[in-house]
Amino acid sequence: MATEPKKRTSKQPKPAVADLSAVREQIDGIDREIQALIAERALWAHQVGKAKGKLAAAVDYYRPEREAQVLRRVVDRNDGPLSDEVLVRLFREIMSACLAQQEPLKVGYLGPEGTFSQQAVHKHFGHSARGLPLASVEEVFDEVASGTADFGVVPVENSGQGTIQSTLDLFLTSPLKICGEVELRVHQYLLSRTGRIEDVERVYSHGLSLAQCRSWLRQHLPGAEKQAVASNAEAARRARNADDAAAIAGENAAHVYGLKVVAGPIEDRDDNTTRFLVIGRASFPPSGHDRTSLMVFIRDQPGALYKILEPLARRDISMNRIESRPAHGALWQYAFFIDVAGHVDESPLKDALGEIDEFAGDVRVLGSYPVAVP
Amino acid sequence: MATEPKKRTSKQPKPAVADLSAVREQIDGIDREIQALIAERALWAHQVGKAKGKLAAAVDYYRPEREAQVLRRVVDRNDGPLSDEVLVRLFREIMSACLAQQEPLKVGYLGPEGTFSQQAVHKHFGHSARGLPLASVEEVFDEVASGTADFGVVPVENSGQGTIQSTLDLFLTSPLKICGEVELRVHQYLLSRTGRIEDVERVYSHGLSLAQCRSWLRQHLPGAEKQAVASNAEAARRARNADDAAAIAGENAAHVYGLKVVAGPIEDRDDNTTRFLVIGRASFPPSGHDRTSLMVFIRDQPGALYKILEPLARRDISMNRIESRPAHGALWQYAFFIDVAGHVDESPLKDALGEIDEFAGDVRVLGSYPVAVP
Questions:
Q1: Among B300, B367, B302, which residue's Cα sits nearest to residue B340?
Q2: Chain A residue with minimal CA distance to B96?
Q3: With contacts defined as CB-CB under 8 Å, which chain A residues touch B36?
Q4: pLDDT tens, B242-282?
Q5: What is the C-alpha end-to-end distance of chain B, expressed in Å?
Q6: What catalytic reaction does the record list (chains A, B) (predicted)?
Q7: Other CB atoms within 10 Å distance of the CB of residue A230
Q8: Dihedral angle sign, alpha carbons of residues A358, A360, A364, A367
């Protein structure tokens, strides 16, 4: 080894240009060390499993709060040259491999293989977890509840299309807990039958998707007619019927509807994301940077929601999201899904929840979980 | 750090069971070291790029033979606890991240996202390469030839269904070189409308898929009628029409045809694989364990093939595969695709090829490339 570990930061002068074989020798030495460290890490992880019980399956010692802490530390001490995102991915995979030594985690998702949901499973649990493709989001809830799957990953909102109400509604009747969130970037493509931009005179898409690509459309298809339709799938179906039409949709639609990719990704902002929730049967301790999802039921009385929110507001607990849903219960008439900052086991959220007027409503904690690490 | 790097092998006594926080501290220390080493590795890789030219894109310094050597070394020195396959995957990702620091590799494949081809791209090039989903295998060839993609990944044979002739035929007219191979395990599932094994009285599938699952069928469905059909997709289509029918097909077919997974994976041998070729514009030096794909054109004359093969056979050069195709040329009437052990730049293959009788036929080297690392 040419350098000491403690000198290994990008702040030291970069290695001088050497001949290729000398550089490769350096890299070989580094690889040997990395491999030895990964093996040692796996042995220690194995010890954690043994400490939890002789034949502990991964689900018994998987700790989302601990993984989030490890990844945040990776980001904190990163000073290049690799990006935070790349390093987080590498460490997710290393942790995933160490965890899967006995029985890997089984994670249910909305199949088939190849969906964004599967990508979310891999992003959050690494490729050593075993994904179980299921036919519906309901089935994901069922298989986790029955123990066939250790965890489930379900889509809950898209920065373009908003909240996926049907997923949220499953929490109304499910005892499962939210124990994580995953954010995944998604992309828009311009698709058409001919694949040639000069043929395009009309562009179909969901209104939100058209809005997401407005600048691109103005720049590249200023003369084309934009027509909002019910869904991106409907747009792709229409584009299939005419040579002068195009659809904005996910790349996947090109295959399903036999269209060609004209251009893409074409969304104006590259932060177009879908958010997934990780569901499981247990609650986990704080990670230091957590979010809590609450389901709040209230009577139809003036000021009920205000009374629920007041103890949160007074403590400056920030609220990321609030969605109202009909509750269909005898006592409570409205349900609200509310995401707030913090963990239920920690102040100030713990205090605020303890103070909520039980006559105003009923608060169920769906879960406290680490805020997604990029 | 509790231990010295040189002691880090699984041959030393495993760390004793300690309390959880002490183990986590150990792991945190290891992670810090791994991260520093990965950063240093990335800096050295950056130097390789610079040595090749000031603004070298990844394609300019990507060396498949070097990657294969690194991965073989990883396998050679692995003595647990993680499997070779897991370690190879981790090191692929580390190399991929180091390579993608400037401009990542662009790799074309048969889209859409989510296909086995995309999995093959990720397996071979890691997740830091940029995959380009394309509409056809022809388009993959075109985009690599034009330079839009740096490399392409195309399916060439399945251990169940045999060679994909249409892919091989593209080499008849393409100047592209084979510079790698990827092997991907694929799985078979039993699918039906009800999802209940007790309902199944008939099983449809392609004959080869039925054969692949023979033991499983004998054990679990001894009384069911087995019926071979043209394809697994056709089998799924038939299974959709009756409650007492099932299909053996890929898991993906469950979603496409609205079927439920009864059981799977159910193939008798877990080595059911699809083989992909990596195509590019350049040839690469030997990696030490290589394979060479040849396209041999011969006249329709007795003994022509024998004359071509003799110099190979005399040198004990093993042949993995031979496929004949009509050549449609004026001079040569038959084409054979032949895979042999070794690299064209090394003896004995180099000598054998130099000796082949030019009157017997014409030999084109499609490429010499590292044998796939698991």
A1: B367
A2: A86
A3: 5, 8-9
A4: 999 999 988 767 766 778 889 888 887 766 788 999 999 99
A5: 33
A6: chorismate = prephenate; prephenate + H(+) = 3-phenylpyruvate + CO2 + H2O
A7: 9
A8: negative
